[in-house]
Design brief:
heterodimer; A: 344 residues; alpha/beta; Rossmann fold; 2 domains; six-stranded parallel beta sheet; six-stranded mixed beta sheet; 12 strands; B: 411 residues; mainly alpha; ABC transporter involved in vitamin B12 uptake, BtuC; globular
Chain lengths: 344, 411
C-alpha cells in the first residue's frame, strides 16, 4: 500500500517538476518599420495581471505610437534559461531587448557584453548589479515612496490602530515596500501597531505565487486585530484579499490597479487602493527614447513619485476623502522634506 | 533472441515510451489546433549560423550535466529499492556550503576545485545519511523523512544565505554568497570546438561535463561489476534473500544513502563552478525532482540516464525558439509529462510480460539468474539483464521490495 503511494508520489513529483505555466508568446505583430522589441518575462509570464502584463501594456502602447513588433518570451519553470532567452532574442535580431524583473541581474550583464550593438533594458534591475555595461539601461522604481503613501492611507483609515504588511519573499526589493509602508504609517501616527510578515524566506520564491499561504498569513493579522493589510506578494496577494473579505477587513493592492484586475466583486470591495508601479510607463518611455535615439545607456532611470512612476490608485473612491492629506505627504517627499528609508 | 532478451527491456521500453508520448502529444497539439509537425520542426531547428547551432549544443549539454547527476543520485538509491526524494535538499545544502567554503579560502587552482567538490560531496552525503540513520534505527520510511528533510534543508540554506554566508552588498537586488576566487572556477571546454574545427560559440561549455562522465562510468562499474553493486541490487530485489546470503542490510542502507547523497552533492556544481561562482537566491531549483523523472526514463542505468538527461535538456531548449515562433511552449511540458507517464506504464507492462515468461519457462530463466555471484563478468551480465526484466523499473524501485520477495527468492 505504502509502495503504491510512493509510486504515485514519484509520478506526481516528476510531473510537478516538469510543469510550468508559461504562456505562448506571440510572433510578429505586424508593422515593419518600427523597432523589433524583445520582451523577456519574469516568473509567471504573460497573463499574471500584474507586473509582466504591465510591461506588455507599455510595449503595446509604444507599438501603437511608433510601429514595430514584439516577441514575448517566458523563462522555464526553474528559471535556469534566462540567459538563453536573451541570447536567442539577440541572435534573432531583436533590438531593443527588455528584461522584466530583478532576477535577470545575474545574466543580463554578460549577454549585453556579448552583443554590444544591441540596446538592453532591465525593469527592476540596476546597471551596477549587472556590471555596468554601456548598452544596458536600468528601469528602477522608488517603491518605498509609493509604499509610504500606502502607509499614510492605511494609517488615516485604520479604526483599530493596527495594520499589517504581507511580503511575498524576503528580498531586498520587497523590503523596500515594507520600509516605505512602515515609515508612512509612523509619519501619521507612531502609536499604530504594524505587523510585518513574509510568506517565504529569501531563496524560496514560492512566496510570490502561493495564495493559500498568503491567506493564512493575512488571516493571522486580521485575527490579531489589524483592519488594513498591505501586500507586496505578487500572485499570493489574492489570498490576502480573500482573508480581508472573510474578516471584513480591508487590503491594499500592489503593482497594478488591482481593483480593476481582480474581477471578483466580493474581493473588489476590500481593495481600498493599490500602490501603482507604472512599469507600463517606464517601458513605453524607454522604447520612445530608443526610437528617437536618446538612450544614454550604462545608467539607471528612476521612476518615482515626482515622475509619476509610482503612486496610489483611486478606483472605487475609498480614499477620495483623504486625498488632501496624501497630496501633502506626496509634495513633501517630492520636495525632499521627508526622507523615505529603503530598508526596514 | 538472447540479445533481444538481454537488452530488450533496457532499450526498447524507453524508446517505445518516448514514441508513444510523442504520438499522444501530437494528438493533444492537434486537438489544440497547433500544428505538431511545425512544433517538431522548430524543436529540431538549431539555428542558421554555425555559432548559433553550437550555442544550442552548449545549452543542451550544460543543462544535461546537472540533470544527469541528479538522475544518477536518484538511481543509486532506486537500485536497492530506496526512494531518495531528498536529492533536492541534499544538493541545495551541499551547493551553498561548498560555495561559502570555496569563497573563504584561496588555494592553487586544482586544489581549490578539489576542496569545493569534496565539501559538496561530504555535505550531500551527510544530509542523506540522516535519512539512512532514521531508517536503520527507527524504521522511518525514507520517503517520508527525505521529503521532510527537503524543507529543513531549504530553510537552512535560506538562513545561511541571508545570515552567516551573505556576501552581497546590502541592498543588492539578488542576495548571494561571496564570489569564489578565480582559482576555484572550472575552466570551460570551449577549446574542444576549435580542436574539432567547429564554430566557437560565446556560451561556455561546462568543464564539469568531464567530471559527470567520470562519475557516470565509475558508478556504472561500481553497480554492475563489483561485489558492492551486486549486494546493493540483491538487497533491492529481495532484502530477505540478501540477508540470508550474508549481506548486512542495515549497512547497505547506510552505504547506499551516503553514495546517493554524495552524488546529489555534485548536482549544483556545474552551475556554481562553471558560471555563477556564487550561490544566489536565484540558484536553479527543482533539479532533484527532475532527477526522479530522468532516473525513471533511464531505467536506473547510467547510460540510459545520460540519454534521458539529454532528451530532457533538448526538450527544454526548445522552449525558447517555440515562443519566438509564436507556438505555445506548454507543448514541451505536455511532452515531458507524457514521457514520464508512458515510461512508468511501459516499465510495468514489461515487468508483467517478463514475469509471465519467467513463470512459463521457469527453469530456463532461473538457470540464467543464479550464476550472478558478483565476481564473474559474463554470469553477472546475464543476471543483470534478467533482473531488469523480472523486477526492474518503477514498481520495484519505488519500493515494491516486499511484494517481490517471493518472486525474487523463487528466481
Amino acid at each position: 500500500m505504502t509502495k503504491a503511494a510512493a509510486l504515485l508520489l514519484a509520478g506526481s513529483l516528476a510531473l510537478a517538476a516538469c510543469a510550468s505555466d508559461e504562456e505562448g508568446g506571440s510572433g510578429g505583430d505586424a508593422g515593419s518599420d518600427g523597432p523589433k522589441i524583445g520582451l523577456a518575462f519574469d516568473t509567471g509570464g504573460e497573463g499574471d495581471r500584474s507586473f509582466n502584463d504591465s510591461a506588455v501594456a507599455g510595449v503595446e502602447a509604444a507599438i501603437k505610437e511608433h510601429g514595430g513588433e514584439v516577441a514575448k518570451l517566458s523563462p522555464n519553470n526553474d528559471n535556469s534559461n534566462r540567459a538563453d532567452l536573451l541570447t536567442q532574442l539577440a541572435d534573432d535580431g531583436y533590438d531593443p531587448i527588455i528584461a522584466v524583473g530583478f532576477a535577470y541581474s545575474d545574466v543580463i550583464g554578460e549577454v549585453a557584453e556579448q552583443y554590444p550593438d544591441i540596446t538592453f533594458a532591465q525593469v527592476d534591475g540596476s546597471v551596477e548589479d549587472a556590471g555596468s555595461p554601456d548598452n544596458l539601461t536600468g528601469l528602477l522604481f522608488a517603491e518605498e515612496e509609493g509604499s509610504f503613501l500606502a502607509g499614510v492611507a492605511a494609517a488615516l483609515k485604520t479604526e483599530t490602530d493596527h495594520v499589517g504588511f504581507v511580503g511575498g519573499v524576503e528580498t531586498p526589493l520587497i523590503q523596500k515596500f515594507q520600509a516605505g509602508f512602515e515609515a508612512g504609517v509612523e509619519a501619521v501616527n507612531p502609536a499604530i501597531r504594524i505587523d510585518s510578515q513574509y510568506i517565504s524566506p529569501a531563496g524560496d520564491f514560492s512566496g510570490f505565487n502561493d495564495p493559500a499561504r498568503g491567506k493564512i498569513v493575512a488571516e493571522g493579522m486580521y485575527d490579531a486585530g489589524a483592519d488594513i493589510v498591505y501586500h507586496a506578494a505578487g500572485g499570493s496577494g489574492i489570498g490576502v484579499f480573500q482573508a480581508a473579505a472573510e474578516s471584513e477587513g480591508r487590503a491594499i493592492g500592489v503593482d497594478s490597479d488591482q481593483f480593476q484586475t481582480v474581477e471578483d466583486p466580493a474581493l473588489q470591495a476590500v481593495i481600498m487602493t493599490s500602490m501603482l508601479k507604472r512599469v507600463d510607463n517606464a517601458v513605453e518611455q524607454f522604447i520612445g527614447e530608443f526610437v528617437e535615439g536618446n538612450v544614454a545607456g550604462g545608467e539607471n532611470e528612476v521612476f518615482n513619485l515626482e515622475s509619476e512612476g509610482v503612486g496610489l490608485s483611486e478606483s472605487g473612491g475609498f480614499i477620495d476623502d483623504i486625498q488632501g492629506d496624501l497630496d501633502t505627504y506626496r509634495q513633501q517627499i517630492v520636495d525632499g522634506e521627508v526622507d523615505v528609508p529603503t530598508t526596514p | 533472441m538472447s540479445l533481444l532478451r538481454r537488452f530488450g527491456p533496457t532499450v526498447l521500453v524507453p524508446v517505445f515510451a518516448v514514441l508513444v508520448a510523442m504520438v499522444i502529444s501530437a494528438l493533444v497539439m492537434a486537438a489544440l489546433q497547433v500544428d505538431p509537425f511545425e512544433v517538431f520542426r522548430v524543436m529540431f531547428d538549431l539555428g542558421d549560423k554555425p555559432s548559433q547551432q553550437m550555442t544550442a549544443v552548449v545549452v543542451v549539454l550544460n543543462r544535461a550535466v546537472p540533470l544527469f547527476l541528479a538522475g544518477l543520485a536518484v538511481a543509486v538509491a532506486f537500485r536497492m529499492g530506496l526512494f531518495n526524494i531528498g536529492v533536492e535538499g541534499q544538493y541545495r545544502l551541499a551547493t551553498i556550503v561548498a560555495a561559502a567554503v570555496g569563497a573563504a579560502v584561496v588555494l592553487p587552482g586544482p586544489l581549490h576545485l578539489l576542496l569545493i567538490v569534496v565539501v559538496a560531496v561530504v555535505v550531500g552525503a551527510l544530509w542523506a545519511g540522516i535519512v539512512a540513520v532514521l531508517k536503520i534505527t527507527r524504521g522511518v520510511s525514507e520517503v517520508i523523512s527525505s521529503i521532510m528533510l527537503n524543507f529543513i534543508a531549504l530553510g537552512i540554506a535560506s538562513f545561511l544565505l541571508t545570515g552567516p554566508f551573505r556576501g552581497s552588498a546590502p541592498g543588492a537586488s539578488i542576495i548571494s554568497t561571496s564570489e569564489i576566487p578565480e582559482s576555484g572556477w572550472m575552466p570551460s571546454l570551449n577549446g574542444v570546438f576549435d580542436l574539432l574545427g567547429l564554430a566557437n560559440p560565446p556560451r561556455q561549455l561546462y568543464g564539469f561535463l568531464i567530471v559527470a562522465v567520470v562519475v557516470g562510468i565509475a558508478l556504472a562499474v561500481l553497480l554492475d561489476r563489483t561485489r558492492f553493486g551486486f549486494d546493493l541490487k540483491a538487497s533491492g530485489l529481495s532484502p530477505s534473500a540478501a540477508s540470508a546470503s550474508g549481506v548486512n542490510a542495515r549497512a547497505m542502507v547506510l552505504k547506499t544513502m551516503l553514495l546517493s547523497g554524495a552524488v546529489a552533492g555534485l548536482i549544483g556544481l556545474p552551475d556554481l563552478l562553471g558560471d555563477k561562482h556564487s550561490y544566489t537566491t536565484d540558484f536553479t531549483a527543482g533539479l532533484g525532482f527532475l532527477g526522479i523523472a530522468v532516473a525513471l526514463l533511464g531505467r536506473n542505468n547510467p547510460i540510459g540516464i545520460a540519454f534521458a538527461a539529454l532528451l530532457f535538456s533538448f526538450l527544454d531548449r526548445a522552449l525558447v525558439p517555440l515562443q519566438i515562433q509564436g507556438l505555445p511552449a506548454s507543448v514541451i511540458t505536455i511532452i515531458q509529462g507524457t514521457i514520464v507517464l508512458a515510461v512508468v506504464i511501459a516499465n510495468e507492462v514489461a515487468r508483467r510480460i517478463a514475469r509471465r515468461t519467467a513463470e512459463r519457462g521457469g527453469a530456463a530463466v532461473a538457470g540464467a539468474a543464479t550464476p550472478g555471484d558478483g565476481s564473474t563478468g559474463t554470469g553477472q551480465t546475464a543476471g543483470d539483464a534478467d533482473a531488469q526484466g523480472t523486477g526492474a523499473g518503477v514498481s520495484r524501485t519505488a519500493g515494491a521490495g516486499q511484494a517481490d520477495d517471493h518472486k525474487g527468492a523463487g528466481a
